[in-house]
Automatic annotation (TrEMBL):
<keyword id="KW-0547">Nucleotide-binding</keyword>
<dbReference type="InterPro" id="IPR058031">
    <property type="entry name" value="AAA_lid_NorR"/>
</dbReference>
<dbReference type="Pfam" id="PF00158">
    <property type="entry name" value="Sigma54_activat"/>
</dbReference>
<dbReference type="InterPro" id="IPR009057">
    <property type="entry name" value="Homeodomain-like_sf"/>
</dbReference>
<dbReference type="InterPro" id="IPR002197">
    <property type="entry name" value="HTH_Fis"/>
</dbReference>
<dbReference type="InterPro" id="IPR025662">
    <property type="entry name" value="Sigma_54_int_dom_ATP-bd_1"/>
</dbReference>
<dbReference type="Pfam" id="PF02954">
    <property type="entry name" value="HTH_8"/>
</dbReference>
<dbReference type="InterPro" id="IPR027417">
    <property type="entry name" value="P-loop_NTPase"/>
</dbReference>
<dbReference type="InterPro" id="IPR003593">
    <property type="entry name" value="AAA+_ATPase"/>
</dbReference>
<protein>
    <submittedName>
        <fullName>Fis family transcriptional regulator</fullName>
    </submittedName>
</protein>
<keyword id="KW-0805">Transcription regulation</keyword>
<dbReference type="InterPro" id="IPR025943">
    <property type="entry name" value="Sigma_54_int_dom_ATP-bd_2"/>
</dbReference>
<keyword id="KW-0804">Transcription</keyword>
<feature type="domain" description="Sigma-54 factor interaction">
    <location>
        <begin position="26"/>
        <end position="255"/>
    </location>
</feature>
<keyword id="KW-0067">ATP-binding</keyword>
<dbReference type="Pfam" id="PF25601">
    <property type="entry name" value="AAA_lid_14"/>
</dbReference>
<dbReference type="InterPro" id="IPR002078">
    <property type="entry name" value="Sigma_54_int"/>
</dbReference>
Amino acid sequence: MPTSTVDLATARRYVNSARYRSLDELCGGDPQMQDLIARGKRLIDRNIPILILGETGTGKEYLSRALHAYSARRAANWVAVNCASIPESLAESELFGYCKGAFSGALPGGMKGKVQQADGGTLFLDEIGDMPFALQTRLLRVLSEREVIPLGAAHPVPVDVHLICATHQDLKTLVAQGRFREDLYYRIAGGVLRLPSLRSRTDRRALIMQMIGDEMSCADIDDSIIAPAALQRMLAYAWPGNLRQMHAVIRYCCAVMNGGRIEVGDLPEELMESFAPSTHFEGPAISPVSNVRSIVPQAGAADILPRPPGGPLGDERTRVIDALVGSRWNISAASRQLGMCRASLYRKLRQLDIPHVRDQAMPAHFASYAA
Ligand SMILES: Nc1ncnc2c1ncn2[C@@H]1O[C@H](COP(=O)(O)OP(=O)(O)OP(=O)(O)O)[C@@H](O)[C@H]1O
């Protein structure tokens, strides 16, 4: 974060680039994004609850912040809760707060819950699809009554929050499976904004240039900052981790580049491996780059763990396992490489039925990679 020794312009640039982009800055000219932002602007001040959908890393949280900053509530708090990461036992007190003496171990003065902290502002419930069912019932009550009852309190406290929820999950399927309350779904999905995946956006070039500019704290970079072949590879890449992954890749390239220009050899491994000149790149063939350090052991983990049937899930499983082995089962490093957050990677392991290396009998050479 900026400190008091940093001048205001630098601090403003930091805030602008790292955490808070305005709504208009979220789009580099992609028509789907332009349409989504225009609809978001119309919804936000009508107090209509907004549900943001999109793959992991597509910028759901960024969009929520930008909507709040655009709204009439911008002077009040924007409070985020990640429903996937609060332990179920703490979720109620986190969200609704408690009074002093509510339970042993409680703070002496009690605690305001997130809903009350967002009073007058915006409450952002991220990963709403992961909210425990019992808590969904309590949330529904808060939304319909517009009041919370902190644990141990005798009386309800009125609250006025604008609700923005986000998820990468298909909530309608969760409803059909009985895992998400239908009445809550209709209450939170007043206006649905579906963020496009990065690979389907036509403004990838503008985003790359914007991120490089941010990374170098320089607003007026030009095309000479990146070699045409490196840019082509970035444009041809599928970006499974979306904006999060692109941001991580740009940071990496800016850190390793030498000589003021990002070259093909500065790209991280995943961009080199996935590149197939015959299918993606219209231009002179690019020879494989030999100076890319391989972090994946020669015997691929995908050959060691039992393979699922082929098809897209099998490919994804191989990609995830290779990232895990390459990072020696360091979940933070593997999730960075895959362009997803740790919680998403743990979810992916469950979904793809990949047991953690700690939990299985592994061949000695493979298990030795475990962190
Ligand atoms: N417009 C943007 N410009 C630059 N970087 C961005 C932008 N949007 C997102 N990012 C990068 O992507 C990361 C993920 O963004 P965000 O948390 O908003 O995505 P998300 O869809 O909420 O992810 P998840 O589904 O994993 O919660 C950010 O931390 C940032 O690094």
